[in-house]
Amino acid sequence: MSKGKEKTEQDKEILIKLDVLKHCRYRLTQSPDKWSEAGIDIMYQVFENNNELSEAYDLSQKFKKWYDISNHIKSKSIIIQELHQWYLEVKKSGFDEFTSVVKMIRKHEYEIINFFECKQTNAKAERLNGKINRFISNNYGVKDKDFALYRIAKYFS
Question: Whole-angstrom Cα distance, residue 70 to residue 1?
Fold first, then answer.
């Protein structure tokens, strides 16, 4: 923006674009079917001016659609094929942010695909593990380990 006291027309256009971006922040986390009529208009303006943002949003929505529980009826080979197709799209896009996500997903690919077979996650076990770790850190310095294990067993039973 210019350093003068008065805003030029170009400065006003920049501020309008920034204001529109500010209003779309929450909508970028939602799927398009949850947008209101005003939200659709705002997102259309944003995507029209920001092609990279539009492409990144489309990639994130494709992964979100792939990870939906309704895909459990598909065969394992189709699920894997669709995931690898998404990997290729991310690679073609060249977004560094998605590259790290792909790396993390590839590391846990077996467990993620297993979600579609069992229709369950290990969220309950992870939560219990977090609670136990928090309990242990709050009671750090206990001298009697047997009594501490007894308290953990009673607390989480």
Answer: 48
